[in-house]
Amino acid sequence: MLFQTTEAHEALRAKVRAFAEKEVKPHAFRMDQANEFPTEAVKKLGELGLMGIPYPTEYGGAGLDVLSYAIAVEELSRVDGGTGVILSAHVSLGSWPIFAFGTEEQKQKYLVPLAKGEKIGAFGLTEPNAGSDAGGTETTAIDKGDHYLLNGGKIFITNAPKADIYVVFAVTTPDIGTRGISAFIVEKGWEGFTFGDHYDKMGIRSSSTAELIFNDVKVPKENLLGKEGQGFKIAMATLDGGRIGIASQALGIAQGAYESALEYAKERVQFGKPIGFQQAISFKLADMATKLRCARMLVYSAAELKEAHVPYSMESAMAKMYASDIALEVTNDAVQIFGGTGFLKGMDVERMYRDAKITTIYEGTNEIQRVVIASQLLGKPPK
Ligand code: CAA
Question: How large is the ipTM?
Answer without folding.
Answer: 0.98
